[in-house]
Please model this.
Amino acid sequence: MGFADGDKGHAYIMKTKIIKVDIDNFQTKELEEAARVLRNGGLVAFPTETVYGLGANGLDKEASRKIYAAKGRPSDNPLIVHIAHKNDMEVLAKEVPEEAYKLADSFWPGPLTIILKKKDTVPYETTGGLDTVAIRLPANVIARELINQSKVFVAAPSANLSGKPSPTKANHVINDLNGRIDMIIDGGSATLGLESTIVDLSEGTPMILRPGFITKDMLENVIGPVQYDPAIIGTTIDPNIRPKAPGMKYRHYAPEGSLTIYSGELDKVITTINKMAREKLDKGYSVGIIATEETKDLYQYGIIKSIGTRNDEASIAAGLYEILREFDTLHTEYIYTESYSDNRYGQAIMNRLLKAAGYQIVNV
Ligand code: TXA
Ligand code: MG
Model:
């Protein structure tokens, strides 16, 4: 996997300007400077409702290259282009099928990315060499105002160093990218905490390339049959199936420690995790446990962190990446987690957990 050109040594010595913007009460002029940086080809990290994004002018190939250099991202992994107005799809895509308008009307602004055939004006630097372009209109009002004011289409991957969990708070972005980018807009926590659903409308039956808050059922209610990319279903990784979203093939969201998921009846899962944790502690390793409000008091060993409540899977989604980062900060060597049901958000949660765990899952 090749890395985009870019002088990383140079990128390190940049002064990163950090500004705070109150999402519930800000004036458009607070985003003027950030918009200008984007217009002039610079890099700005900004909040979205899913995760923080690292933005640059998506139609400027030099600006796109800077994103890859700052993140250390493989150059074949395409970027999502963020827009502020639905009809801007027509400026980026060669053809906009009826389904795209229907999905945009139902789910934009929001956590859905639509893949369409690209126009020649969208550089291959932005699309990782593909003839398609990923487009999203985010719901976060800071993001939308920034894109609108910048007057450019904002290519933005998650604002983490490649291989780290996606950032859900400005602090996570600062830890990863301070000194490597021009600006960071601290707009509070990303409320959803997992990246957007990606649906490919560029050929054949619409296909989900990455699960998220907009589920298959929700899409099917609007446009009829939708299928999953075979590479993203199941709990094992088949080296013969290549995911259609290049980014899904990398071991993303990886914590420093070894993460194992336990599935099965919850009481058995807890017993097994207690046993594993005890064994590792006895051997002198550090241990972390990702528990829930319902189960946290049932664990006996290691550092126990509650991710959220099982009564509200959205709280679990919102807490996942932060907990993985916290265990990184502690340099925890072994991390154990329960698993989550496959319905609604559970599928997106399990998809990210499995990738973070390098598909280490044990059924008890
Ligand atoms: O919620 C989100 O989508 C966040 C926020 C910032 O909008 N962005 C995000 O970007 O998650 P990133 O770069 O971390 O993930 C983009 C994913 C990658 O897996 C990439 O391979 C896939 O989208 N992708 C982008 N363009 C594509 C294309 N033309 N065809 C197939 N997959 C594409
Ligand atoms: Mg990412």
In short: The radius of gyration is 20 Å. The pocket of threonylcarbamoyladenylate (ligand 1) is lined by residues 48, 50-51, 53, 77-80, 111, 113, 115, 127, 130, 132-134, 136, 138, 156-158, 195-196, 198, 209, 244-248 (CB under 6 Å).
